Amino acid sequence: MTPVVKPIRLGVNIDHVATLRNARGGRLPDPLRAASLAIAAGADGITAHLREDRRHIRDADMRALKDEISVPLNFEMAATDQMVDIALAIAPHACCLVPERREERTTEGGLDVVGGGAVLRGHIARLGEAGIRVSLFVAPDPAQIGAAFDTGAAVVELHTGHWCDLVAAGDHEPAAAEFARLVAAARQADALGLEVHAGHGLDYATAETMATLGEVRELNIGHFLVGEALFEGLESAVRRMRTAMARGRAALRAGMAA
Fold first, then answer.
1. What CATH number should be reported for the domain holding residue 198?
2. I want to staple 220 with a disulfide (CB 3.0 to 4.6 A). Which of 3, 11, 87, 94 is the partner?
C-alpha cells in the first residue's frame, strides 16, 4: 500500500499589494480585492503582516480581511504586547510571530526563540486562550526548533529565504547544504508534534521542491506572486503556484511508492 501523503496548503501573502497602494496613497490597488482573487484561484489562506510602521498593511486592511474573506486569515506580527492586543481584537484564525526591525526591507531571519522563549510563551498563551493558533517563524536550526516546541506554539514556519537566495545565485553546493538543513528541521519539528510550514523567497521552482517534503503542510508566498501578477495576473500566478506544488507532492508520492 502506498503511504498516505498529507495535502499541502498555499497561503498567499498580500502585503506588497498594499505596498503598491501606499506608494501613491489612496485606496488602490485594494488588498482585499487581491485576497479575493487569490482565493478564487485556489489559495487556502491569506497572510498579511501588520508592521509597527504600517509600511504596507494597515489596521483597516486587517479588519476588512477578517470580516470579508472566506478562508483563514494568518496575521503576521512582531512579538510585542501592542501587536498581541491588536490580534486579540481582530481574532484571526492564526498568528505568525516574526522578528521585526524598522529599517529592514523584509523579514531578514528567524525569531530567536532560544533567547526570547519566556516572552514568547506569554504571548502564545494569551493568543491561545482566545482560540488563535500560533506559529513561530524560525531558521532551520535544531536549537530553535526545540525551543519553539517548549513555548507551546502549535506551528513552526521555516525560513526558506537563505536557501532561495543560494538557489537563485547558482551556488549549488551551499544550496544543497541549506536544503539539507530545511529537511532536518522539518523532520525534527514533525517528530515533536509541531505542524510545519515554510516560506520566504519561494518561487515556482523552489516551492515545487519544498512540496516534496511530506512534513511541510503549508507554504506562505507573497512577493513573488505579486510580482508575477504584474505580468500574468494574480489568479494565473496563484494557479501556476498550485500546479507547481502539486507536482512536488506527486513526486513525493512517486518516490514513496517506488
1. 3.20.20.70
2. 11
